[in-house]
UniProtKB/TrEMBL annotation:
The lineage of its organism: Bacteria, Pseudomonadati, Bacteroidota, Flavobacteriia, Flavobacteriales. PROSITE patterns: CN_HYDROLASE. It holds the Pfam family CN_hydrolase. CDD domains: CPA. Signal peptide: none annotated. Keywords: Hydrolase. One of its GO terms (biological process) is putrescine biosynthetic process from arginine. This is Carbon-nitrogen hydrolase. It comes from Flavobacterium pygoscelis. SUPFAM superfamilies: Carbon-nitrogen hydrolase. One of its GO terms (molecular function) is N-carbamoylputrescine amidase activity.
């Protein structure tokens, strides 16, 4: 029988350090989350390094790792030891010249339950991800695990209702969004509140429209590793929302934290029975959604 209730966690961290130190730090925080009762635990996007996409620099490709190497070995052993599911977002080297922004979903026995490659790749000032990442080619996926059915999207994917919908239609109970998003310090006073509010509102909307739990794991801290730039101030504020968009747990803007909430599948079913958005979808009228624009 599937679990009717299970606890999920997102971990909010400052990751402006070298890979070895970030790995040790994340292992320690995952242990702490498991001690608090978490059964499915997500780290932030690109956990192993500072956010290197602030510049276009070929030297940063050295931060990537092949599949099933350092990150997988470490977190596979940890998942098996703790009996938890761990979502591990990492910089994947697929082959020479092809790199992805990816996430392992590692099951309670240490096996790979699934792999997700970020589908939507941004190219904004100091978020120059198109230079580094090939768009994902595995599609939108729901991954069955020993704890529950997990949908994992990554950061920029969070702005796309189609991504949330397709993942939910495949049976996801929770949509996890490992994230690295923040303010340009010089813009924060003028635009910061609206930017952060939009980020929260769009994901809460995904929760409501799909009757799913949504969990966002962001990083914190000012990462100013380039000379003569203001860097990026990652705004934290990680959160977990329920299937009506209600906030179940909310982090600060500037502290390392663990957020935990319970997924209740009976509640989710009740919400979908009373708000039957899936039932009423006019799938016969949606064909144009696959067009770039309807001219």
């Amino acid at each position: 029988m599937p679990n009717k209730k299970y606890k999920i966690a997102v971990i909010q961290l400052n990751l402006n350090d070298i890979a070895e130190n970030n790995l040790k730090k994340c292992i320690s925080w995952v242990r702490d989350a498991a001690k608090l009762g978490a059964e499915v635990i997500s780290l932030p996007e690109l956990y192993s390094s500072h956010y290197f996409c602030q510049s276009e620099d070929v030297d940063n490709f050295a931060l990537a790792e092949p599949l099933y190497s350092t990150s997988f070995i470490a977190f596979s052993a940890l998942a098996k030891e703790l009996g938890v599911v761990i979502i591990v977002p990492f910089f994947e080297k697929r082959m020479a010249g092809i790199y992805h922004n990816s996430a392992y979903i590692i099951d309670t026995d240490g096996s790979e339950a699934g792999l997700y490659r970020k589908m939507h790749i941004p190219d904004d000032p100091h978020f120059y991800e198109k230079f580094y990442f090939t768009p994902g080619d595995l599609g939108f996926k729901t991954i069955p695990t020993q704890k529950g059915k997990i949908g994992t999207l990554i950061c920029w994917d969070q702005w796309y209702p189609e991504a949330a919908r397709l993942t939910a239609l495949k049976g996801a109970e929770v949509l996890f969004y490992p994230t690295a998003i923040g303010w340009h310090p010089q813009e924060k006073e003028q635009y910061g509140e609206n930017q952060y509010g939009a980020w929260m509102n769009v994901m809460k909307g995904h929760a409501v429209a799909n009757g799913v739990y949504v969990a966002a794991a962001n990083r914190i801290g000012l990462e100013q590793y380039l000379p003569d730039t203001a860097g990026i101030q990652f705004w934290g504020a990680s959160f977990i929302a329920g299937p009506q968009g209600e906030i179940l747990a909310q982090a600060s803007h500037d502290k390392e934290e663990i957020l935990i909430a319970e997924v209740d599948l009976d509640l989710q079913e009740n919400v979908r029975q009373n708000w039957p958005f899936f039932r009423d979808r006019r799938i016969d009228a949606f064909g144009d959604i696959t067009k770039r624009a309807i001219d």
